[in-house]
Amino acid sequence: MAKFDSATVVQRKLRAEFGINTPGLTCVKDEFERFCETEETTDKISDALKDKPQSSVRSVAADCYIPPTTAHRIMTEYLALKPYKAQFVQQLYEEDLQDRAEMYKTLISMLEDSHMQENLFFSDEATFYVSGLVSKHNIRYWSETNPHVTIETVMNSPKLNVWCAMSK
Fold first, then answer.
1. Closest Cα partner for 127 from 168, 100, 156?
2. For residue 150, how far is the Cα from the chain centroid?
3. Separation CA 29–CA 42 (nearest Å)
4. Which residues of the chain have pLDDT under 50?
5. Across-strand partners of 89?
6. What are the start-end ranges of the H helices in 52-156?
7. What is the pTM of this model?
C-alpha cells in the first residue's frame, strides 16, 4: 500500500487483476498495518539478538513484548536465524595427552579379554555445579551461520556427580 496512495487504490488493482473475489477495504488496511508492525518487531528482535545472541526465544519475546511463537517465527522466517548449541570443552594441558594415551591402552586390552566383556558396565552421569552453572543443553546461539562457539569450563570447580550403571 505504501506504493499506492490508499487502500481503495490497492483494492481496485487487486479487483482488476484477480476479479470480484478480492479482500475488503478493512482487510487490506489490516494487512498493511500488520506488515508494518512485523517490520518494527523484526527490527526490535534483531537489535535484541545483536546484544545477546545466546538469548532464548522466550527472553527475546519478553524483551519485545510479543508472544514466543511470533518471536520464533520472525527469528526463523524473516531473519533466517538458526539455533546453534554451544560446545563445552574442558581445558586440556600437555600432561593430559599422556594420561589419555594410557587410558586408551588400558581400555583396549580390557575389551580384548573375553572374561572382561562379561563384566562390562554401561554408565551415565549428571553433574550439578555448586556455583550454579546451568545445564548446557538449554544454551543456544541464534545466528545465520554456525558460530562454532566453545565455552571453556573450569575443571576443578565444586560439583556433585550423580552416576548410574548397567551391566549384563
1. 156
2. 14
3. 20
4. 1
5. 152
6. 57-64, 68-73, 94-112, 114-118
7. 0.49
Q: Which amino acid is at 135?
A: S
Q: Are 57 and 139 in contact (CB under 8 A)?
A: no
Specify which residues 36 forms β-bridges with: none
User: Residue 38 corresponds to which amino acid?
Assistant: T
Cβ-Cβ contacts under 8 Å for 16 (sequence gap 6 or more): none
State whether residue 161 is helix, strand or coil.
Answer: strand
Q: Phi and psi (nearest 5°) for 134?
A: -85, 155
Model confidence pLDDT, tens digit, residues 135-145: 666 677 788 88
Residue showing cell 514466543:
68
CA–CA separation, 129 and 161 (whole Å): 9
